[in-house]
Amino acid sequence: MAVINFPVSAPTLPGRELRRKAASAAKSGLSKAPIAGRVFREDAPQAAKEPVRITSEQVEEFGKALDELRARVVADLGDRDREYIYNVIKAQRALEVAGRGLMYVLPAWPIAVLSLGLAKILDNMEIGHNVMHGQYDWMREKGLNSRVFDWDNVCPADQWRHSHNYMHHTFTNILDMDRDIGYGILRMDKDQKWHPYFLGNPVYAFLLMTFFEWGVMLHDMHAEEVVQGKRDMREVAKLAKGWVRKATPQVLKDYVIFPALTGPLFPTTLVGNAAANLIRNVWTYSIIFCGHFPNGVQVFTQEETANETRAEWYLRQMLGSANIEGGNLFHILSGNLSHQIEHHIFPDIPAFRYPEMSVEVEALAKKYDLPYNKGSFLGQISSVWVKIFKLALPDSLVRHDEPAGVLIERKTEVEATTAA
């Protein structure tokens, strides 16, 4: 029987002052919970965007339904999932062999680049990202074990597991806790204080997209803290040893060894390998940003999420994510992160299952009148870039549409005591 541990659950954020503020909010009887997207009913008129009100009992029912969905899927894991991941690995290897081999045939260079680019996308998205989340640990297979798996990427796997699996997935979209909000270099929410530095927001975003694997590698460094002199450089030195150890063979492989093996075609192979990495970087950046930053995705404060229950953690994951609509091939190439909502709720369930799970998750959202953010790739990515440009400017020069809200109605201390 497959056994999957529930991912890091809703944390109790540190700090006496933070808990004091949370208690103060609870006494009011109406506590502000994660705020949802701009439009949560397609048929709702623009003027009728009032906050959705949901009771704490309804939130717990919502969480219980998701727990039951998770349990059903875990109990069903087996041969179908094994066959799927094995087939993806076979396809990835075939594409890489074809891409490397076709570099020797100059007329086939565009096909070689495309094939190698697709191989890198599959390796990073549907295989690497998902395996390192522990989605296939239940198989007890060393090659698919999250603790030892490594990927075709310059970022050390252990550093990625810390910055992504732990920090991002625990504190998803909590301002000043989740460093994936802007990656330390971008302004991706209006509650991030504006500074003249952010005038370069579009340029920084373009550079991050182009060199995304390198940006991911440097993520744990906390670049903004280094610039401010707040980062312990001894810790950075430890990280740097991992970067050198991981990036050196990657650079040698793509930009020295494989190009050298093609002899006189060294220049075209070198450019081809760089182009394949660029394809992977642009695609990965686009999918990730579509799942985290389009219109309607909410950023939360520490006060709003202090002492949240597991069900409220689920709710935050849903309200802080967005899905991308597409066909089966699109979902596979995205690592099924086109179902970012389901991934944030169930990060260690095989992503192969997200499409079928999304039907029930969306139905649950509809049942409680909660927003379920989904849209086309072009729609989501265009809204992301519009946001990047708008947030580059001071708030006084642009209008930020306040999203409609979701309020959790909690009992006051008096009511809770009486009920007990």
Set down the secondary structure blueprint.
Elements: H1 16-27, E1 31-32, E2 52-55, H2 56-76, H3 79-102, H4 109-131, H5 157-170, H6 201-210, H7 212-217, H8 223-227, H9 233-261, H10 266-292, H11 302-305, H12 310-319, E3 323-325, H13 328-333, H14 340-345, H15 354-367, E4 374-376, H16 377-390, E5 406-409, H17 413-419
Parallel strand pairs: 2-5, 3-4
Antiparallel strand pairs: 1-5
Q: What's the short version?
A:
The protein is built from 17 helices and 5 strands. The protein has 420 residues and is mostly helical. It is globular.
Task: Describe it.
The protein has 420 residues and is mainly α. Helices cover 55% and strands 4% of the residues. The chain contains 17 helices and 5 strands. It has helices at 16-27, 56-76, 79-102, 109-131, 157-170, 201-210, 212-217, 223-227, 233-261, 266-292, 302-305, 310-319, 328-333, 340-345, 354-367, 377-390, 413-419, and strands at residues 31-32, 52-55, 323-325, 374-376, 406-409. The strands form 2 sheets. It has a 3-stranded mixed beta sheet. The longest helix is centred in the middle third of the chain and has 29 residues, at 233-261. It is globular, with a radius of gyration of 22 Å. Residues 1-48 have low confidence and may be disordered.
